[in-house]
Amino acid sequence: MSIHHDNTSRAPARQNADRWPADLAARPIVRRAEDDDELIGFHDLAVLAGVSDPNLLVRQLLTHSHDQILGASLDGTDPGRVIHALHNDGLPATVARRTMALAAVVDGQLVGGLVAGPSVQTLLQPAVQGRRDTLTAALLRTIEIQIVAVNAEHRHLGVGTALVRAAIDQARRANAHLVHGQFDTERTNLASFFRGCGFSVDLPTAGLDFATLADIDLQLTTTPEQRYFSLTF
Ligand SMILES: CC(C)(COP(=O)(O)OP(=O)(O)OC[C@H]1O[C@@H](n2cnc3c(N)ncnc32)[C@H](O)[C@@H]1OP(=O)(O)O)[C@@H](O)C(=O)NCCC(=O)NCCS
Hints:
The strands form two sheets. Strands 1-2-3-4-5-6-10-7 form an eight-stranded mixed β-sheet, sandwiched between helices. The chain has a two-stranded antiparallel ribbon with strand order 8-9. The chain is built from nine helices and ten strands. With 233 residues, it is of the alpha+beta class. It is 39% helix and 22% strand. Residues 7-17 have low confidence and may be disordered. It has one domain (4-11, 25-232): Gcn5-related N-acetyltransferase (GNAT) (Aminopeptidase). The chain has helices at residues 36-48, 54-66, 79-89, 91-97, 120-129, 132-141, 159-173, 189-196, 210-214; strands spanning 4-5, 29-32, 100-106, 109-117, 142-150, 178-184, 200-201, 208-209, 219-220, 226-232. It binds coenzyme A (COA).
């Protein structure tokens, strides 16, 4: 048996063992976050992931959800629509269209979550420099995993892996070419976690070259305190 996914997420959970305790009534479902209560629950997950302003994150998720743009351009996306949105609605709203908030739910309770989408920080550089082709390419081809977190009592059961695999599946359906992210070097277990999810994990000082990875004229630098991980398809 494995963790159950609904239609929005067909990523398999770990296949080598069934570690879900028999005394827990139900296994997690991994799917898009559905309502305000779930999105508000991302506050505590963001704290676990070390996000500097969890309140801002939740406010943005709620606003974009109410505006019905959160993840609106992730399935079968026509690039023309994204370019149109960029022109008419601006960068933050277009990024929101390419951003997913995935929930792992047990018995109606949020036990884990993931937020991934184009990195605003990365996109600012070409936006400010007026490099519109680079900006559009990064919007369409790259997805950054910004948060993945699981409640302490539900860890080591495959929930985190299921969330990340669901995000990779969604990124494929969105015709992205590169899924990437970074984590604190001191969180030593994360290198094996992300490798287990299929990513290459770079050395602490290595930057990320979007030109090599996704044919986009952008390079990200880093510090020894941060490590990048990436997956291309
Ligand atoms: C990182 C995090 C999301 C992982 O969540 P998780 O649900 O425990 O992840 P998984 O259960 O899928 O995998 C975790 C470990 O359990 C092991 N595991 C899980 N299911 C397994 C199975 N069926 N068989 C064998 N091993 C399994 C994995 O080997 C993995 O071990 P590793 O970390 O040594 O590689 C979680 O630890 C967390 O929330 N951390 C705090 C937030 C954070 O740091 N986020 C990352 C930066 S945004």
